[in-house]
Write a structure and sequence with these properties.
By secondary structure, the chain is an all-alpha fold. The chain has 13 helices and 2 strands, in the order H-H-H-H-H-H-H-E-H-H-H-H-H-H-E. Helix 1 (3-11) runs antiparallel to helix 11 and helix 10 (136-148) packs across helix 12 (170-179). Residues 202-227 are annotated as: Disordered.
C-alpha cells in the first residue's frame, strides 16, 4: 500500500474495515523510505486508532471533520464555499479524473480529500507533487488547525505537505490558526444553523440550489476510484 493511499484511508471515516486490515496498515506505516521520526509518528497515530474502540474513533472523526467548515475534508469548501463556482469546479475535477481513465465508483463528492488521495496513489510522482502543490495551502491550514485543536491527524496533513515539496510556511499558518475563532463550538454551530435556515418566497437566497457541502455519509465514505 502506498503512503498516499494509507494517508487517505486514515483521513477517511473509520469504518469497521479499518480494524480488519490493521496489520496491513501497520506494515504500510512502517515504510523504511520515511524518515525515522515521521515513521514513528505515523505508526503511533495508526496504533492509537487501532487500539481505540471503533465507536469512540468514529465519534472523534465526526467531532473533528464534521463540525463547522474549517476542518472540512471537502477541498472546494475552502476555495469556493457556497458560491456557484463550486458546482463547475466539481464538474472540472470529475473530468480531470476521467481524462486519466478513472471513474468514481460511487456517488461521492470529487473534492473529498481521501478520494483525491486514492486517485493520486496511482499517478506518477511528478503529477502527484503537482496536484498536492495546488492544494498545499489548504492542507497546510488543516495541519495548523489540527495542531491548534490537539488532533492527532496533524501528522497526516504534515506528511502530505512534505510529499508536495512546496513552499508553504507552516509557522505562519499556525499563527493564523491560533488567531481564528473556532467554528466547531455549540454556539458557532447554532449560528450556522440559523444562517442556513431554509427560507421560501421573497426571503429565499438567489443561490438556494447551491451544491451540497456535506461529506459523504459513513456508509459510503471509503473512497474508491477505478480505472
Amino acid at each position: 500500500m502506498s503512503l498516499l493511499k494509507l494517508i487517505g484511508v486514515l483521513l477517511d471515516y473509520p469504518d469497521d474495515e479499518l480494524w480488519r486490515h490493521g496489520d496491513e496498515l501497520l506494515d504500510a506505516a512502517a515504510d523504511p523510505a520515511l524518515p525515522a521520526a515521521r515513521r514513528k509518528a505515523l505508526t503511533g497515530f495508526l496504533q492509537g486508532l487501532l487500539d481505540s474502540d471503533p465507536l469512540t474513533a468514529q465519534d472523534a472523526w465526526l467531532q473533528t471533520f464534521d463540525r463547522g467548515r474549517s476542518m472540512s475534508l471537502l477541498l472546494f469548501e475552502h476555495i469556493h464555499g457556497e458560491s456557484r463556482d463550486r458546482g463547475q469546479a466539481m464538474v472540472d475535477l470529475i473530468e480531470a479524473y476521467r481524462k486519466q481513465g478513472f471513474e468514481l465508483a460511487a456517488k461521492e463528492l470529487p473534492d473529498y480529500l481521501p478520494l483525491l488521495l486514492e486517485f493520486l496513489a496511482q499517478r506518477p510522482p511528478a503529477e502527484v507533487r503537482d496536484w498536492l502543490g495546488h492544494i498545499s495551502h489548504i492542507v497546510g491550514m488543516l495541519a495548523a488547525r489540527a495542531g491548534e485543536r490537539g488532533s492527532p491527524s496533524q501528522v497526516l496533513f504534515e506528511l502530505l505537505l512534505e510529499l508536495a515539496d512546496g513552499k508553504v510556511d507552516l509557522a505562519v499558518l499556525r499563527q493564523r490558526a491560533s488567531e481564528e475563532a473556532r467554528d466547531d463550538t455549540a454556539e458557532a454551530m447554532d449560528r450556522l444553523w440559523e444562517e442556513e435556515a431554509v427560507r421560501f418566497g421573497a426571503e429565499a437566497p438567489d443561490d438556494s440550489c447551491r451544491p451540497n457541502t456535506l461529506r459523504p455519509s459513513p456508509s459510503t465514505a471509503a473512497p474508491q476510484v477505478q480505472p
